[in-house]
Amino acid sequence: MLVPITTATLALLTFGILLLRIFWPRVPATVRFYLIRTAGVLVTVHIIFTATKWGTASDHINVIIKWLAVASYELLLMLFTRLRPRWLTSICGVILLVPIFASSVLLPLTYLFDPSINKPTSLGNDLSYQRVLWGNDSSANSGVNIIISYHPRFAPFLRRSLWDVPFNNQQCNARAAFAVIGPDHKTVLARCPRWPSQGPGTDDWVFTLP
Q: Which residue, 99, 131, 145, 185, has most beta carbons within 10 Å?
């Protein structure tokens, strides 16, 4: 359900930016000046966050930044299509716009409409983990990602994703997956208990802290 809503919202956003492109000459020069520079900053910030795996401590703020970056990218792309020769820049613009609707971009945007985002659970040592659900049933097409993050003491409003561990419901009871820090405080264990029909045991991932 979230994907259709997100796709429709993204389509409306794209249409709105297309209208802005059409009426761009009527936009006051000062507004155009700040729009272009703000768009460039937002795209740059998102690229840096993605490349370094840093982000804010709030999932809602992170997804808003993603939406603003997508809107900024579309704005810069639409303005690019105003350059001459317009037939060529328009073709390039359409080609560069299509990936916006790919699943790799679309799925992270769905979290804006997801009220069930789980809050991080503290592991100690400035670490936390978060359970991110994907899929809506108990089939192999659903599961949980255990995301283990680091929170710097000097900037608690930021976090850096260290590991992203996927568990699907075919291999274990993904909704019961969790993470704990090792007794030596040098490792982190991501554990997913098996289904009763699979017999006793767990699927484990062990990571050494940097």
A: 131
